[in-house]
Amino acid sequence: MQDEATVSAADIARLAGVGRAAVSNWRRRHPDFPQPVGGTPTSPVFALADVEAWLRDQHKLQELPLEERIWQRLRAEARDDLRVAEVVADAGELLLEHHAAGTLRPGRPPGPLSAETARAVAELADAQSAIRAFEFLFTRYRETQIRRASTTPPEVTGLMAALAGDARTVLDPACGTGDLLLAAIDGGDAPRRLLGQDADRDVTRLATVRLALLGGDPSIRDGDSLRRDAFPGALADAVLCDPPFHERAWGHDELTTDPRWEYGLPPRLEPELAWVQHALAHLAPGGRAVVLMPAVAAGRRSGRRVRAQLLRKGALRAVAGLSATHHLWVLRRPEIAPPATVLMIDSADPETVVTTWRRHADDPDHDEPGVSRAVPVIDLLDEEVDLTPSRHISAARSERTAERFTDTHDRLATTLEKAGGLVPALPPAAARREARSVPLSELARIGHLVIHHAPMRGDTEDGGDGGPPLLTAEDLVEGRPPTGKAARGDNRWIPIETGDVLVAVVARSFVVRVAEADGPLLGPQLCLLRVDPRHLDPYFVAGVLRSSANARASIVQSTGTIGRADIRRAQVPRLPLEDQRGYGAAFRRMTEFESALRNTVAMGTELAQLLADGVAEGTLAPPDGPLPRPAR
What sign does the CA torsion over 207, 212, 215, 221 have? Predict the structure, then answer.
């Protein structure tokens, strides 16, 4: 590849504070726009010096923040996206030294990075702290490595750490960049030892830096855990594992006689059962393993013998059905007298799963209809040995069905009556409005708003009365009160104020709400716009952020449910404040209407279920005569 520093179209958009679409337009409309020097026709790269010169001539070059300039320098030093992890790890190791010593050693050789880049990284650490500098660089790394970097969702990592409980030594044999080990640091007493292994050497270096910067004692090795276990004989109080699903070349033939297969040889097409037994082999007496499993592993015919042995020997203690695609298996080393039951939980709510496990893990008579049940092992040892929780949970009780039907019916009727009056009516414009739109980055530069991003991670508590409330991304999406808790003494979270515009990215679109009250803290994966009411109406800003054009221009990553965006790219029309307030009132009414619709759908679904239950139970009487036809 060429020797000069290069940038992608997304990087150019950041340099100019615009969306990707604007860069595409410049390439089409300006013959003098720099030509690509590499990449592909669909993902070209350009010489950074040429791009900066062109933007400067066009008066489009913005003053980049220090961290963005250093990120571009690292990208240039990598020369290839496949080496981004390597150079970020190089920078991370410099930052780790800076964090430990408060500065870089005078006369220190720059190492793999160029001397100029090493000095820039140290400058960033001096300006922000080594921890914050690495958080920024790591976040940018993940944005460029969507396909390479597999991550466990934050709500699942926290759940797995909570189920594992306090531990002195924690092992993750497929650790990636260390998400599960970080979750272990967050929960309870900090572990004394963190052991991790991953096949990708660069991501193990990143994991080491992340964990060490945040107070862990990591020992992270590279290599394939199943073929070349880096910790033979090591025993951990907790093993957390999100193994690579559906990996067919996992070593079945060469590992046929491996002593880890205490519960049976894992089938060739079920590597997940190999990871389960690897985790059990590393458990200390009394320890606990929590493994994220594909839901199909609970009932595949090929794996029924291994599942049966896990049950007979008492190694499998609980299965939690988080979704139609993922389960959590909780395991312990077998005891002399294996338990007679296995706890089955069918809930997507992490708090419900944790509470149920802690209260009822050793209760052989536990039965919470519709949620969880302690299932006798003998009942599971049939021809299928199906461990799918929903198959074994008792049906929800139908107490007070008739009264609940009447109450839900009345609430639904009232909500429907109010909803119609919430729809804002705006007349068509006589002519298309011509108003210049400006990016949020420009509005921030001139002081009309401030952009705050929540920390990538921080200390949280598992409920309880201690920490202040923390608004999560899921809370914002669902329009519910905050369900998270910040740990006492962690001052990194941003307090939300009335009128703040709160933003999350979901399914390649923005979810935006305006804070109606002070109080909760801004949780991970959220950002906040604090507008100056003398210049901007918060409801107007919130409304236009939801436009399709802003979503296309701003969202740079969306993997799974929650994604990431460069909010600074979003555009807001420059309008008089009175016009903003008029539109803002309409957006506010529409938000209330959407909330009413969500409540209507939820109540309608509940009412349909209550109708079915009431008829089946005989607690609802038939209607008096034919029901009136709905109005057309």
Answer: positive
Helix (H) or strand (E) holding 92: helix 84-101
Matching CATH number, 154-391, of 3.40.640.10, 3.40.50.720, 3.90.550.10, 3.40.50.150: 3.40.50.150
What type of residue sits at position 337? A
Residue 187: predicted pLDDT: 60
Quote the CA–CA distance of 566 and 504 in Å, as a whole number: 11
Give the residue ranges of the chain where pLDDT is below 70. 1-5, 63-64, 80-81, 102-111, 145-150, 187-191, 396-399, 433-435, 456-467, 488-490, 506-508, 552-565, 629-632
DSSP state of 396: P
Give pLDDT, residue 241: 96
Within 13 A of 586's CA, how many CA atoms are on the CB side? 12
Q: Per CATH, which fold does 436-574 belong to?
A: Adenine-n6-DNA-methyltransferase TaqI; Chain A, domain 2 (3.90.220)
What is the rounded CA–CA span in Å between residue 193 and residue 209?
15
For residue 472, which of 499, 496, 489, 439 has the smallest C-alpha distance?
A: 496
Rounded Cα distance between 545 and 511, Å, is 9
Q: Rounded distance, CA 308 to CA 311, Å?
A: 5
How many helices (H) does the chain have, and how many strands (E)?
A: 20, 26
Structure tokens at 466: 């201690």
pTM of the model: 0.63
At 272 the pLDDT is 95
Q: What is the pLDDT of residue 424?
A: 77
Residue-wise burial string across 146-184, b where 16 or more C-beta atoms lie within 10 A, e elsewhere: eeebbbbbbbbbbbbbbbbbebebbbbbbbbbbbbbbbb
Domain residue limits, the chain: 6-144, 154-391, 436-574
Q: Which pLDDT belongs to residue 540? A: 94
Element at 539 (helix H, strand E): helix 538-545
